[in-house]
Amino acid sequence: MANDIFRERGVGESKKHTAMIMADGGAAMELPNPFGEVGNSLSDSDLRETAYVVFVGAGRSSGGKPLTYISQSEKAERSSSFSAPPPSLQRSLTSTAASKVKKALGMNSSSKRGAAMESSAAQAKSKKPVTAGELMRVQMRVSEQTDSRIRRGLLRIAAGQLGRRIESIVLPLELLQQFKPSDFPNHPEYEAWQKRNLKVLEAGLVLHPYLPLNKTDTAPQRLRQMVRGALEKPIETGKNSESMQVLRNAVMSLACRSFDGHPPEACHWADGPPLNLHLYQMLLEACFDLNDEISIIEEIDDVLELIKKTWVILGMNQMLHNLCFAWVLFHRYVASGEVENDLLFAVNSLLIEIEKDAKATKDPAYVKVLSSTLSSMLGWAEKRLLAYHDTFCNGDIDLMQIVVSLGVTAAKILVEDISHEYRRKRKEFDVACDRVDTYIRSSLRAAFAQRMEKVNTIKQSSKNRKNSLPLLSILAQEITELAFSEKGMYSPILKKWHPLAAGVAVATLHACFGNELKQFVSSISELTPDALQVLKSADKLEKDLVLIAVADSAESEDGGKSIIQAMPPYEAEAVVAKLVKSWIRSRLDILKEWVDRNLQQEVWNPQANKERFAPSAVEVLRIIDETLEAFFLLPIQSHPVLFPDLLTGLDRCLQQYISKAKSGCGTRSTFIPTLPALTRCSAGSKFGTFKKKEKPHMGQRRKAQVGTMNGDCSFSIPQLCVRINTLQHIRKELQVLGNRIVTYLRNCESNHVEDNANGSGKILELSAAACLEGILQLCEATAYKIIFHDLSHVFWDGLFVGEVSSSRIESFLQELEQILEIVSTTVHDRVRTRVITEIMRASFDGFLLVLLAGGPSRAFTLQDTEIIEEDFKFLMELFWANGDGLPTELIDKHSIAVKSILLLFRSDTESLIERFKSVSLETYGSSAKSRLPLPPTSGQWSPTEPNTVLRVLCYRQDDMAAKFLKKNYNLPKKL
Questions:
Q1: Is the pLDDT of residue 886 over 90?
Q2: pLDDT average, residue stretch 75-99
Q3: How far apart are CA 703 and CA 782, in angstroms?
Q4: pLDDT for 420
Q5: Which end of the chain is less crowded, N or C, counting CB atoms within 10 A of the terminal residue's CB?
């Protein structure tokens, strides 16, 4: 019967900590009796004496020999020649053999009593042996005088009712008639005895009858009246007494009822619950040693054998015996200060039998008592298990195993064998696992709250200390200790009922800490050392808890998936990342605001510093460098992961600066004038009729003929050069910045440093590319601004206007040379060649525009070609500068287009017309044979492009050209 889940314990271990508990505990916990109240003012003493009467009477009826009464004087005379008593009550108890009952209940045999009996073994031979009947009298605190009177009364009853079995006799009724006041030491004692017997009759026949009372029956009322009357004045109990006759009639009328109306074999006066249970409890409590209230007597086997003989009178059976015995053991354990663990162990063993009993019967009366008893036990157990961290520690961890088993078994019986709800859900419900799950979660929550309170106290005491850890960091350490303590101490015990005990425990702790962490995270808005420390501690705690959960669930059906799913991650790294990203956004917003504000104030003064670049660029790069340094000083592990966000933002700020540095400066198309409509020269006219006008008038004419340029011309050439220098400076510093970033990343602990370093290089290339693009755009814009805006009066408005020989390129070259000197001394060495090259390219493009789209104020004869070629040669020589300027190869490369067009100017008109027809046919196919289409302007001047050849014809001062254009396109004459 012993529960094999409990390991063997040494003798005497059950009494450990007794002194400490008795010193600390005060009064023992008072448990309400689950059997219900007897009522009728019957005291424990009354019930005990009544139980003893039943015990002696039952023992008398079970033996083969009659019970012999021996007077006190006869006892003294016969003490020397004592003969062996009948085996029913007088069996010898000097044997020290191990108790079968204790063994079955898994209890240790007490050595104290055995040692005492062994030490007096020699004396026992000369003395009367201790008997079960005598031991029971002593255990039930019945005096020898009372015992003698009871036995004398029973002998008289037996003599008067020979052949009747004890269960057919109403003992209190018969005893009332056997004694007179003279049989008692004094009259009050007799009255008390009489009242007790009458109350017992009332309790057994009226208050708690075996069978329900008939409402029409007057016997209960008569019995009640007699009891009430006896309480005021004792009744006459003589044989011929009228009151006794009335009492007998009422009592026998109630005691001899049956379900079927036939006379019963037994009288029912003490077998109605809860009276029978209370009387039986009194008998069972006699199994505890009077000298040691927490020890069961060694003679338990013999005593129980005798107690069971009362079943016929008390209406008991093995199931009720198991239940009552379990309650008596449990109650004694609790009432005695919970120091004798053997008692609780025995209760557990009995619960195994009770569980079998509960499955075997559905008797409503039994189920009612069972439910009440187990509910009381379960309530006691759960009060300890719902906070088992407070109840059990290393010293009494074995006790926890017993208490859990008791609680789980009680719960299983209550739910599985009593609950109707369970029967509908039994396939999906494990009672033991569910209860243990509740215990774990409840106790861990309570333990967490205690640790939280402890940490608050610690934090308060260390409030003024420097470098003290944040509260949640300390709490995380405490919870880690609690988790490992749970895993090592409690989970191995609880795992017997719950396969994922440790997993549930850490999941509970994870949720509790998660709630605190959530509140903390919601209260922080910026990255602080404390915030980082808390999040780092939370991340470490979570990893420890998850490791415990995974290890605990390795052998479970789902591999611990359910537990892990119940632990939603803290995402501490994500919170850190969020805070870092917020920090990054804040820094970038400041940088963007600074860029906008300082660019608005920037004047691009070439005298601002020796290097001739903008001071604002220096400040931008300084702030970026400081931001990078501050980022890598953040005490986080995820620098490489979060760095791309920062770098992307910094890159955008740089691009914003670069974009604004070049904005408003225009492009090539900004400064190139709008091309005029195609016209033809008048047949037979001489261009000599054009006369040179004064410059103001010429400017007005060009404005009217060609239209205005739409660029922003507010920036001077030196300012544009400073912008170019600034972008070149940023481009150079980006390389330094990239190297510094790689160094930062390599100093971080990351497995992906190289990837991040390479990635950051690629991101930096965006800013570098923007710089290069900006430099090219500014160089081009500067060049075309110089040619078409700053020098338009001597170039676009003056070159070859009217008579070619009188409007040559000399004036333009003089002013261009001065500007080239300014540019050369202002721009950085690394970009000087590029700027000069762009100016050269712009001047070459402008030279072609003068020849091919110069407007109606320009016309060229075949003879003008030499002058034009010579002027272009002068232009190229300016950029060559006798070898000190641009390389010859570069000049030749960019002059190819102009030279190819000058070849067309060398051709006669007829050849030009034939060439035009030929290239038109090649371009448009057979459709050009019937009618030559008017080719659109592509801007890509080439001898093989129809529009280019057509334009040479339009500016040819020649009758053949004018007629051809008139005939084919009806172009208007030049104004």
A1: yes
A2: 44
A3: 22
A4: 61
A5: C
pLDDT tens profile 667-705: 888 898 888 888 887 644 444 333 333 343 344 334 433
Q: Which amino acid is at 662?
A: K
Cα–Cα nearest to 509, from 558, 546, 561, 470: 546
pLDDT, one tens digit per residue, over 269-299 is 999 999 999 999 999 999 999 888 889 999 9
Q: Contact, 154 vs 324, CB < 8 A?
A: no
What are phi and psi for residue 81, nearest 5 degrees? -120, 50
Q: Which residue has the higher pLDDT, 927 or 344?
A: 344
- Whether residue 72 is predicted with pLDDT greater than 70 in this model: the reply is no
Buried b / exposed e over 420-437, threshold 16 CB at 10 Å, is: eeeeeeeeeeebbbbbbb
Q: Among residues 194, 94, 115, which one has the least CA distance to residue 153?
A: 194
Question: pLDDT digits over 579-627, tens only?
Answer: 888 899 999 999 999 999 888 888 998 888 888 889 999 999 999 999 9
Question: Strand pairing partners for 288?
Answer: 296
- The pTM of the whole model exceeds 0.85: no
Segment 393-408 mean pLDDT: 91
Q: From the centroid of its chain, how far is CA 679?
A: 82
Bond before 234 cis per omega within 30 degrees: no
pLDDT of 302 higher than 80: yes
Among 947, 943, 965, CA closest to 956: 965
Which residues does 437 contact at the CB level (< 8 Å), separation at least 6?
498, 504
Q: How many Å from the N-terminal Cα to the C-terminal Cα in the chain?
A: 130
DSSP labels for 739-753? HHHHHHHHTS--TTH
From residue 317, alpha-carbon distances to 54, 60, 168 in Å are 16, 20, 18
The whole-angstrom separation of Cα 577 and Cα 960 is: 80
CB 277 within 8 A of CB 268: no
CA distance 727 to 658: 7
Burial of 51 (0-12, 13-18, 19+ CB in 10 A): buried
Question: Rounded to whole angstroms, how far apart are CA atoms 361 and 311?
Answer: 18
Q: Distance (Å, rounded) from C-alpha 23 to C-alpha 566?
A: 44
Give me the amino acid identity at 252: M
Instruction: Please give the Cα distance from 120 to 96 (Å, whole number).
Output: 12
Q: For residue 571, with 0-12 CB atoms within 10 Å meaning exposed, 13-18 middle and 19 or more buried, which class applies?
A: middle
CA distances to 821, 836, 840, 842 from 725, rounded to whole Å, are 16, 14, 19, 20
CA 821, 826, 828, 834 dihedral sign is: negative
Measured over the CA atoms of residue 32, residue 33, residue 37 and residue 40, the dihedral's sign is: negative
